[in-house]
Amino acid sequence: MQRLVLNEEQQMLKDAARGFLSESGSVSQLRQLRDRQDETGFDRSLWQQMVEMGLAGTLIPEAFGGSEFGHVGMGQVFEEAGRNLTASPLFATSVLGATALQLAGNEQQQQHLSAIAEGTLLIALAVDEKGRHAPARVETRAEANDSGYVLTGRKTYVIDGHVANTLIVSARTSGAARDEDGISLFLVDADAPGVDIERTIMVDSHNSAVVRLDQVQVANAAILGQVGQGFAVLSQVLNVGNAHLAAELLGVATASFESTVAYLKERQQFGVSLGSFQALQHRAAHLWSEIELLKSVVLKALRALDDRADNAPALVSLAKAKACEIAQLATNEGVQMHGGVGMTDEYDIGLFMKRARPLQQLFGDYHFHADRYATLSGY
Amino acid sequence: MVDLETFRQETRAWLEQNCPHSMRSPFKSDKDVCWGGRNWTFQSDDQQLWLERMAERGWTAPDWPVEYGGGGLSREEHKVLREELARIQARPPLNSFGVWMIGPALLKFGSEALKRQHLPAIVRGEIRWCQGYSEPGAGSDLAGLQTKAVDQGDHFIVNGQKVWTSYADKADWMFALVRTNPDVKKQMGISLVLFDMTTPGVSTRPIKLISGSSPFCETFLDDVRVEKDQVVGEIDKGWSIAKYLLTHEREMIGGFGRTAAGQKTLSQQAIDQLGLEQGRLADSFIRSDLARWDMDAKAFEITGERVTDETKSGQGVGHASAMLKYYGTELNKRRQEMLLAIYGSDAMVWEGEAWNDGALSRQWLRSKGNSIEGGTSEIQLNVIAKNILGLG
User: Fold this and answer.
1) CATH level 2 (architecture), domain A231-376
2) Is A124-229 a domain of CATH 3.10.180.10?
3) Which of residues 296-355 of A touch B (CB under 8 A)?
4) Residue of A19, A9, A4 lying closest to A69 (CA atoms)
5) What is the pLDDT of residues A216-273, one digit of tens each?
6) Do B309 and A3 touch (CB under 8 A)?
7) Of these residues, B77, B249, B251, B373, which one is catalytic?
8) What is the ipTM, given to two decimal places?
9) Pick from B278, B232, B270: which is nearest to B103 by CA?
10) pTM
């Protein structure tokens, strides 16, 4: 059995991602994007460099120009992205898009994978229709006609929606509003008539959008996978997505924790460093312990995806639930232990808290995944 | 090394032949646990047979070298053995501080003579050991211990008092920390010594706990003669061995929260007691608490796996044992509180056969000590803050 540690190649990828992102995808770059109200929401030259490093094709087979490096490898990149609050299309395009196309794409659709690896195609996955994640709650309709299907509905919190070339949209071809059966996935051109996309400015300054579909005509060839059977594919895509979100949250939690500990050592009150007070030491030590557990479950979930293990869904929910819980704790403790400066825009700790919460909500928060874990465990 | 699958088949066949059927069910109470030792009264012929057969193969200490009576199994084979034992819900043949604590310390620090003298008797369950660490004035501040050992040439004369000595009243030998040099920094003048509990001057008195049991004793040492060849490692250098043993103890206590072989999982007990409605535990509030505990327990288990793998790969942060001890014991306390919620007043019964002699209430009370013994949770957090985070 493979050990629960990174192998040499994975460690090298992690180190490379750390060096690169702390240089070129750092918190100060996110501040610049925010402050100049950048409409793209990410830096195209950064993305180009990530493509050149091969990151865009990490999960893509070599036949399509990817490196097929796997989820443990990709997870290291997301952990580093979490540390730096890096804004990039890597998640929506190279995780969600690439996974959906590999799982359900026909031969022609899989050609898109090459474009993803080359960095010429951006994808967005349009799933949710309300604030709280509920992937089976699909009211967007797809009605068959002579030319294919006509899509009508509204999708919210679509990551990279306003910059994507292609949308993957879940829509109902049959069944009632919460049925898992009857959901189908469609590839929709972002420029297609009837598609209206509006960026949503989020608390973390990362990309999100509302997608309105008004009588959008798509061809039969736009169906991704089997008609009415899209939920099974979607579940797998979300599963993969949640593992990488957990990795990113691990990065957010770790960076918050490290900067908080550094502050405890540096900040002097009563003539001594804050870190000399046991009340704070114990809270820091508890948080460290929790982050150690989080590291373990994130790595285990990523490994389970690479191994295609039967219990991967439960392990992913465990990782995401724990990631939500601990990123929340780490950022809350971080702001509190920074004291007054923790409330200022100038210090980074607030940005970490603002990044953690949308990541927590995306594709299910602690409660969602605790519930799923219990269900998968038979209770 | 024998092919693992062959080893598994052979082990399975041997266990099938040799594990008595009455030993293939979880312990019903503490009385079913076999501790061995000179004064041990076996609960049944099967209990005795099971210990003897396992000891014969060295499988009471599966990973110890064969030359000292151990099983000589590789890590992988040991894992297979554990899995095969779990498969038939076999009871551990022997609970032993010898196997868990002083044995590993002797293997690492002991002289050849000490190993040959003590290890085989531990494997066979013939000698039961107890640990003389804490003193009335040295609990969390263990290095402040005052039990004195005065050099008499070929032996020491030891005077002092130990407390929280597990099963001292039933043990045959003690491994104890004593002060051999009072004139140096407190950690520098401590030695680890071994002596027979029947030595004149040794007396014990059990301490009754809130759980009703008396697993711990006060131990009084009054002019006790300890031979110099019974010092483990070097004189005055016992503190590093003590810390090694504390680490071992932390890992052991930290493991208490895990579900033992054959024991019903917490979620299964909840399902049995509360029932399912449309596939979900009927009590939604207990369900959410249970999920939180269950996930933390799983995360803890996976962390144990990662820490082990990191150690094997030469990575990792060292002081992980403080975290494992802290988290594991807090988890077990939470588990016991969950059991109270699941069983309700049934968990509050103190006596009566129908309630398994109040096992639930007693183990709940006993669990409160987990985060105190072997270094309190607060001490573990101190260790993490100082040694890992560099706060201070």
Assistant:
1) Up-down Bundle (1.20)
2) no
3) 296-297, 299-300, 318, 321-322
4) A9
5) 999 999 999 999 999 999 999 999 999 999 999 999 999 999 999 999 999 999 999 9
6) yes
7) B249
8) 0.94
9) B232
10) 0.89
